[in-house]
């Protein structure tokens, strides 16, 4: 047995376990593991008809003097422009949520929920960048900058530069004829003004959320969450005082009054005085050149008009939410929560029809039409190239045997298909959220949160209909049905028909080669199985949230909100155990184990054992034909790969969220919350890049092109009759230039030197195994090298140096089975050079002449003494037990002795190993680390008199582990080998 790294080269032998790695870095060519987008686009319809594109909660609008319409496409983090000819483009925002880009092109900048837009007489565009707490400006050259707000949410800065002021949720904006900017500072309950010199002030509102002040100074009046603001040609200011259910006016003398709304949340008053009418959350206000007011009466689903005589009427909307009426009178059309109004120079009225995901137009004849938006947020492109289509939070992806791609387009309530020619279509879901359609065409059915998708060998599609608590099936003829779940959330039904069983927020689904269906029953904390007869059962999880059960029956184990499932070709089941930050495996005998993740959330471990790595919310899992496991490590914004050997690496994602990298190395690309993974028959990886609204493909993943072809520069130096020191460098082929790690099984400790390497080896083991591992690319390679046949087999002559025996022996019984032995070795042939002495597996090397004290056990009556002098070694087998008295005495202590750690049964094949500790005073702390330095297990003991025996846990992978034992005054590290 090899007990300690300290005497590794005098007594240990290799046992065939790989544990150490090194790195040397070079540039990755673009041909290796390239990432591309295969579905979803950031074009969002740009360059095409505005009516064919998708908008997502359009909020603010403005129209310039040329008739261009600007739309705050809020949830898409963009400002869109619709030309008078109806063509849409993006003028600000790159689609990624955040704050960036000032000083550069507005189309490349990041916005954060833009809500309001305004255009000045010169054509400059202003944006209420709501969650960035700023007002941004896009000049006529397309350059973006900040003109108000310092980014901190609060109130401050009046009288100073607007860029240094604090805003609190700026939502609506307007610009007057002189270029002064007005801001509806929503949560500050104020209207702020930025003059043409950039100085900010408050022009209405005292900061308290209530109603007061009419007839007095606007700055001492109370507003209640103002959302919209407008200025007429005379300079009067109009405020949509939303939660006061009123439209307020501030005249040019600064006096505030109410011009519409009686303060009640209602609908009433058409045909009478506007101040007596009921409004319901008036969200915005606009004023035409004649002084008529237009109000977005949000929860009344109407647009109201107040003429110059103060009489109110409805000009659009029937009063209930819905979509209808295009081509007819606007007063007969249905709107759905209109959020904003704008007027063109010619008198056309534009409506942000918020939940209809459209912008509508009412011309001067009162006829309504749609001018932008297809009504589906994030949905477009069916029948065309998938790379220019719009997806809406795709959460899962699957590939059939022919290479067709299926997408759980959850935000669009659809399952989309991308054919092998790259054309996208809908195969299930009509886009409306609900339940319906079983027995009919899947494209006419309603789904509710289709979060998962799988395809069987026959081409049947399985859908996790999360909000409906069901698994739906689309047959090859396109007919949809329910195959599991009653529609009510809960747990029931095991042993009976799956259609009579209750599921609770199912999330993942997989199908094995025989057609059995596996369901990640997320909130039931179980994996359910539906066999080919339609009978449901639980195959993993006991229903309690937690982590337990590895090594036992999967049905008795605890899972923690399992989200993804996959089945390999042999029938082993893999589980993305989200809350436990692990990937679990259930073998065909029903035994569960962990194959990736140490249970701590975070990112670590690449290049080492997957079980020692940190994951962060693994949401999905897939397995390729070679047994490699792919993990959607969602909160790490990465895809991880676990090789069949158990080592982990990153194959896609930098760890930073965002969108980048197409056409380059996948490991250099940015992902944002990747939630789903799939693998095709050729080994290509597909990623549901959830918040980037795309499906990404990683090609070039292979197994086996990396190879170790041999060694070069070999030199051999005999050390004694039994061993040599050898030096060599490994040779590789088939590498792609990615980082390579190298090890010699159980011989070479981690190093960053690319070679040559020097080892001391023994002739009783003529072979060493070289291993290489390439980060993120071609996997692993090994090479068995017969070093002895390549060395000069004429050994060095034995030296005269020898151990002849021991003297000064004393023996003290400690227990019936243990003794304390003291002795000094005797030598012959010494030359006067220093001697290093050790006892194999019992005592570390020392140059002290003795005496030495050991605690020994009668079940091992002999010890081997070893000494080294100037390169010569000697050994002596000593039967210590025969020199000791057979009588035993108990109660002796080890106080004052050196700390000694003995690993029993080393090497081991189990995940626990017994350890005996002597010479300790007080408490003990035992920690086990893998070869990468990651802690595998830890325990503490209260040390008492005499030696102590205990067990420590090892990792699940084979290899070498380091056991560290600490007391208050001593420490020792020993090596433990698991085969």
Produce a short descriptive summary.
With 979 residues, the protein is an all-beta fold.
Structural notes for this entry:
By secondary structure, the chain is mostly beta strands. The radius of gyration is 37 Å and the shape is elongated. The two termini are 13 Å apart. The model is unreliable at 1-31, 793-799 and 886-897 (pLDDT under 50).
Explain the layout of strands and helices.
Elements lengths: L7 H4 L22 E6 L18 E6 L5 E5 L4 E5 L5 E5 L21 E6 L5 E5 L4 E5 L5 E5 L21 E6 L5 E5 L4 E5 L5 E5 L21 E6 L5 E5 L4 E5 L5 E5 L21 E6 L5 E5 L4 E5 L5 E5 L21 E6 L5 E5 L4 E5 L5 E5 L21 E6 L5 E5 L4 E5 L5 E5 L21 E6 L5 E5 L4 E5 L5 E5 L21 E6 L5 E5 L4 E5 L5 E5 L21 E6 L5 E5 L4 E5 L5 E5 L21 E6 L5 E5 L4 E5 L5 E5 L21 E6 L5 E5 L4 E6 L7 E12 L4 E11 L6 E5 L12 E6 L4 E8 L4 E8 H4 L11 E12 L4 E11 L7 E4 L3 E4 L5 E6 L4 E8 L2 E8 L20 E4 L8 E7 L4 E7 L5 E8 L5 E6 L5 E8 L4 E8 L1
Antiparallel strand pairs: 1-48, 2-3, 3-4, 4-5, 6-7, 7-8, 8-9, 10-11, 11-12, 12-13, 14-15, 15-16, 16-17, 18-19, 19-20, 20-21, 22-23, 23-24, 24-25, 26-27, 27-28, 28-29, 30-31, 31-32, 32-33, 34-35, 35-36, 36-37, 38-39, 39-40, 40-41, 42-43, 43-44, 44-45, 46-47, 47-48, 49-50, 50-52, 51-53, 53-54, ...
